[in-house]
Write a structure and sequence with these properties.
By secondary structure, the protein is α+β, with helices and mostly antiparallel strands. It has one domain: Gcn5-related N-acetyltransferase (GNAT) (Aminopeptidase), CATH 3.40.630.30. It contains six helices and seven strands, in the order E-H-H-H-E-E-H-E-H-E-H-E-E. It has a seven-stranded mixed sheet with strand order 1-2-3-4-5-7-6. The N terminus is likely disordered.
Length: about 190
């Protein structure tokens, strides 16, 4: 088990979130979520089927090094998340000051009725645990929501990430975003087994 300087966010509530790999069958759902007003406020990708396929199919089939996931609650799919090593995206990683051993992640709650009920906090706890399980070499996390996205920032803080900077960063795809809040959480080295 990896020791972490961030709080242990494991709980029975976290277990209610199942993260599974995104498949091509999820693309229509992603189109719907990306077209929802509460998502479009912060997520600037196109919701058109061709654009969604172009964005996510390369990740689904392994041509791109991002790992797209669908979060399932007992009621069904509720959210999307993806994670990546910043070393695989060095230009943007440099913009946010990420080290080569750090991972980044993105997330959205697709079902509006699930917003404001703690799902985001549980989603990020489950995502961080999954990343550590899938890649034990990860030394920490750097995440970059928009400064004005207070809900997203609160979720990161509840999961032990700390604000390190706020600055305007040009998005690699040219999306019109406001100043970026850069959060970091470093993992402590694992303790040796006795």
């Amino acid at each position: 088990m990896v020791a972490t300087s961030m709080p242990d966010t494991g709980s029975a509530a976290t277990d209610q979130i199942l993260l599974r790999p995104m498949t091509a069958a999820d693309l229509p759902l992603m189109c719907r979520w990306l077209g929802a007003a509460h998502v479009r406020r912060w997520w600037h990708d196109s919701c058109e089927p061709a654009a969604v396929s172009a964005e996510y199919l390369p990740c689904i089939d392994g041509r791109e090094p991002s790992h797209p996931l669908i979060a399932e609650a007992p009621t069904g799919p509720v959210a999307f998340a993806q994670w990546y090593r910043w070393a695989d995206y060095p230009d943007h990683g440099a913009r946010v000051g990420a080290g080569p051993d750090e991972a980044g992640f993105d997330y959205l709650i697709g079902e509006e009725g699930c917003c404001g009920h703690g799902l985001g906090t549980r989603l990020i706890a489950a995502l961080m645990r999954l990343i550590r399980e899938q890649d034990p070499s990860i030394g920490g996390f750097v995440v970059d929501p928009e400064e004005a996205n207070l809900a997203s920032r609160g979720v990161l803080e509840k999961n032990g990430l700390g604000l390190v900077a706020v600055r305007q960063i040009d998005h690699p795809d040219g999306h019109p975003v406001g100043p970026t809040a850069i959060y970091r959480g470093r993992l402590s080295p694992a303790e040796p087994a006795c």
